[in-house]
Design a protein that fits this description.
The longest helix has 15 residues. Strand 4, helix 5 and strand 5 form a beta-alpha-beta unit. The protein is built from five helices and five strands; from the N terminus they run H-E-H-E-H-E-H-E-H-E. Helix 4 packs parallel to helix 5. The chain has a five-stranded parallel β-sheet, with helices on both faces. It has one domain: Rossmann fold. It has 137 residues and is of the alpha/beta class.
């Protein structure tokens, strides 16, 4: 059995012994298993007992993804659909405000170093976590 350890992608965070508040997930956009896994993960995050909500930031609505999960879907999910705005800027504002325990950002491209730093600062300010979900074709 292999032991897998998650480490930060940024040496800066490792040097200062601080944990990052950004978690990256890369999924195939075509795989049925990816959609099922993502829906289950979001449902689990939305069901936390914490007072704050899960926030979904994307250029597409969440409902079609969660329809497979049944009638209990989306009870504590705040959905912000981008209409051409920067997903990173929207996510940073949501993180900074601290109204959500987790802000999930759906993107088709990797984030730049500057975007990651902005999300990290915003997550620290709002005492929140950021889940970056990248869909690959």
């Amino acid at each position: 059995m292999a032991l897998i350890e998650q480490t930060s992608l940024f040496s800066n965070a490792q040097q200062h012994n601080t944990a990052t508040r950004i978690t990256d997930i890369v999924l195939s956009s075509q795989a049925h298993l990816s959609r099922t896994l993502l829906a289950a993960m979001l449902m689990q995050l939305s069901g936390q007992t914490e007072e704050r909500w899960l926030c979904w930031v994307a250029d597409r609505p969440l409902k079609p993804l969660l329809d497979a999960c049944g009638k209990d879907r989306g009870q504590r999910i705040l959905q912000v659909v981008s209409n051409g705005g920067s997903l990173c800027n929207i996510a940073a504002r949501a993180l900074e405000r601290g109204k959500s325990h987790t802000v999930a950002v759906l993107t088709n491209t990797p984030l730049s170093t500057e975007q990651r730093c902005a999300l990290e600062r915003a997550a620290l300010a709002g005492d929140a976590e950021c889940l970056v979900i990248q869909l690959q074709n």
